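Technical annex B. To support the medicinal chemistry partners, we prepared a structural model of the target in complex with magnesium ion, based solely on the information shown next.
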Amino acid sequence: MKLLNYLLKDVTHKIEYYSRFSPSPMSIKQFLDFGRDNACEKTSYMFLRKELAVRLANTMREVSLLPASLQSQPSIKLLESWYSQSFEELLEYEKSSPEDPRTLKDFLEILIKIQNRHSDVVPTMAQGVIEYKEKFGFDSFITSNVQYFLDRFYTNRISFRMLINQHTLLFGDTACLGQPKHIGSIDPACNVTEVVRDAYVSAKMLCEKYYMTAPELKIEEINSKAPKKPIQVVYVPSHLFHMLFELFKNSMRATVELYENSSEGLPPVKAMVTLGKEDLSIKISDKGGGVPLQKIDRLFNYTYSTAPTPHLVPSQTAVPLAGFGYGLPICRLYARYFQGELSLYSIEGFGTDAVIHLKALSSDSFERLPVFNKSAWRHYQTGPEADDWSNPSSDPRDASTYKANR
Ligand code: ADP
Ligand code: MG
């Protein structure tokens, strides 16, 4: 018991210690250069054993600031146990020399183990939030805190997986298999329109499964830098695919539901891929009837969806996310992770344009990472500020009485 207490105290102390460091953001170019020129497993090991601990510790400190009643939900407890275990496993390497070949081999295996352990983090966290919401309800304070937290927590996870993937793909046994021209998970010449097409095809299959039909795709490419040449970017194709897949699913659902009983046939979904000097932009447009302006911000809330909530079955396999309302917020995190953006422009009664902006240059694509510091801490302590613009009152002042009383 004494030993257990000692160990717990030691780990808490270590979390505190590592959380004092800010994460070191990497650019896609740095990831690429590192993987390309004399990629050195020892250097990567030395960087990761600290950087992964720092990123884990930063996020763990933030979990501990959530309201106690949210933290005590079984799913969140389970999640915390995964994070602690992974953190402790990384600590084992604090003093292991990279010169010992066993160290590097074991470290790589541990990273794969950690990656697998954390594969269900998103649905598990989602479940924790739903459990909490069902029991206690959400007020505006909790809503804004949870939104703030989840954006940061999931970004942290995206970055954590990015780092682990680079290491395991570059130095693991399967390093030579897979995509030969990829550097880890990065494609140095990612053909954007091809990814658009792939994502469309996958979304179309899903859409046809549910609705027996799906809109066509029309693609337009505008390469302002090298007209008529295919648009390429140094990027992580899996991230791009993920974003586009979500946008296509949304556009298809909106289109099919609007035109379900119409004899006109479905209007196509359009994709426009444009390369400028600074930005690479991808616009997905549909004529699915759009969303009223007032609701647009809400679409990025983790708990907002107009699709029926799918049943959550605790299982070892990943739970499907459709209908959880996680599509857009996570899509925006992927876009922002490398300094991009996702914006939605909708015209109610007509349709929606969703625009993904990415940095055209890999040297501009720096990781955008949450940092656990005083101002993050303050966010959890104070609620949303009182509105400093007038709100339409539900109880309008009777001007005649007001005048009479003066
Ligand atoms: P989900 O698709 O799981 O509901 P999302 O975050 O992807 O979650 O989308 C949230 C909600 O936004 C959808 O339920 C839908 O009501 C609305 N929405 C998203 N994209 C579109 C679109 N292109 N046209 C109309 N409504 C949309
Ligand atoms: Mg969706």
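Notes passed to the chemistry partners:
The pocket of adenosine-5'-diphosphate (ligand 1) is lined by residues 246, 250-251, 254, 286, 288, 291, 299, 304-307, 322-325, 327-328, 352 (CB under 6 Å).
The chain has a mean pLDDT of 89.
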